[in-house]
Amino acid sequence: MGVWQRVSALLDPGATAAPREFTLGDRGQRPPEELAEVRRRLRETGESARAAVRRIDRFLDALQQAGQGGGPAPGADVGDLAASLDENLACLRAFFRAPDNIDVKFREILLGLHPPVRAAVLYIDGLVDSARIHMAVLEPLMLLAHMDHDLRPPQPAGDPGPGPQGGAPGQAGTPPAGRQDGRTGTRPDGPEPWRPLLERVLFRLLPGNQVEEKPTIEGVIDGILSGDTVILLDGVPRAVVVETKGFPVRSVTTPKQEMVIRGPLDAFNESIRMNIALIRRRIKDPRLVTEMIPVGRISRTFVAVMYISGVVNPKLPGEIKRRIASLDLDYVGTEGILEQFVEDRPFALFPQTLSTERPDRAAAYLAEGHAVILADNSPFALVVPVTWWSLMQTAEDYYIRWPYGSLLRSLRIIALLLAVLTGGIYIATVNFHQEMFPTELLLAIAAARERVPFPAALELLFMEFFFELVREAGIRIPSVIGPTIGIVGALILGQALVAARIASPVVIIITAISGLASFAIPNYSTAWGIRVLRFVFIFLGMTLGLYGIALGIFGVVLHLAALRSFGVPYLSPVAPFRAGAEDTLRREPLFYMEQRPRHVRPLDPWRQPEISRRWHSGAAGPAARPERRTRPPGSGTHGKGGTR
């Protein structure tokens, strides 16, 4: 024995004490059988950790394969939940980078059963309602699980009645026969010893209105990231997802862009569930279908496709879902990003979808046979397919009498022509066609430009640029002083430019007319296209005169005629001509608009009979209403459709 071993033996109190003498040397030492149990648990934990790492690798490989355009093989194990709670928690902690990710909460609890069952509650702080988790999840699991109340009436003699807890039908803790689970739609058959415990939690303990069973890690991750609460049970290879969303949402407010004098005053907000509810509030029809598609590898933004089955052409929802599901990108924040990925001609000057913030307008398009696309976190909806005439209309056109609506549409068409052609025609006539001006007007224009040192084209381009600058500044500046900047910039600076002889009064009038006319365009994206075309026509008038203006008009019409929106010609129903063309430049009376727009090819072309004002014809009440005619569309006296 070495010197160091001898010194250690002398310093050890247990070595020098008598065999029967009491010492504190055994304090804190575990008995051999307990040490063996600890070693066994350590081995199991190590095996669970290694299995979790292997499953994470398989799941990441499957995700990488899907991101490269392929996909996991059918039936491949890309992340099924294990029966071990420790293994599932280790896998999920690795996915969520816990404990570095401080807002992802992992709380381990004991279910109040006999014997107690280990469980874990997972959620993201800030996306959930804490009070709902306490009342609908934690309190039933921890405090009420031991109660076994049976509120059913007494069974007749000979009926064994419900048992305390079992898996057979008729026992407590088991749902009635035929009760669906969240995975396969029917109660599974086969040896699943954990099924009674899971069904007890699903059907007896959790009072939430939306409770779902998930078998995969991917489903658990999606539920947590969506603001739900996930419950994992030890020994159960399934997860229970409880709807507990509670993130802050802006309330329903008035429209900011599509304001009306007469009509509803509610608008969409950033919650897709609330936006769907606003539409369903207006269409109380069970045929209204809402399909949800997640888009984006990182954002996982939920996109809803809404349509009325039996009215819409069945090819339209299929094409929309095909385009959305085939997108391969990381982030989709709003419907504006989604629009650029699904429209037919993304390089076109005008939009091929209609963006609206009004739920009443979206509901009206659904009733006509269109489809509506909603994106989470966006207060706008996309309506498809769309035509050029729809972009020049507003919801208020149908809320007022038809002569007023027709007048407003005529004003918008005139405003469109003024916004596009005023500057170009002025430059063309001043530079090349002075003989078109009356003599007095020509002399007045020449006198106003006598001391202006710039050519007419450069002067007009400078004023157009100045007007766009003032308009953009008025939008970006805080709303309190934004309108003031626009008024002051247009009046004071315009007057200063005339006094300094940098611009002539005629050019300022031309710029003001084209600018005000562009504000009358109801669609924001279309107004942007008009602003770009204004500069194009100024350049054509500056170089080719009125011949350039005519060439530009011809090119724009050809461009519009070549566009299609989800298979519908952009200039329908005028080119090609179809029934319903009367409701484009002018608005028909509502009782004459008997058919839905023919260019969307709805399954049900009729929205009302020929005689919809039955009181006027002297017919009986609703009980005597005749069946809807099935004649070919477009025949008859008033076979007219409409576009909104």
UniProtKB/TrEMBL annotation:
Q: Name one GO biological process term.
A: spore germination
Q: Name one GO cellular component term.
A: membrane
Task: Give me the segments passing through the membrane.
Answer: 411-432, 477-496, 502-521, 533-562
Residues of the region (Disordered) are 149-194, 612-644
Q: What InterPro entries does its record include? A: Spore_Ger, UPF0353/GerABKA_families
Keywords, sorted A to Z: Membrane, Transmembrane, Transmembrane helix
- Biased-composition ranges, Basic and acidic residues, are 180-194
Q: Which Pfam families match?
A: GerA
Biased composition regions of type Pro residues, renumbered to the chain:
153-163
**Which superkingdom?**
Bacteria
Family, as annotated: Belongs to the GerABKA family.
Listed PANTHER family: LEUCINE ZIPPER PROTEIN 4, SPORE GERMINATION PROTEIN
Q: What is this protein called?
A: Spore germination protein
Species of origin reads Caldinitratiruptor microaerophilus
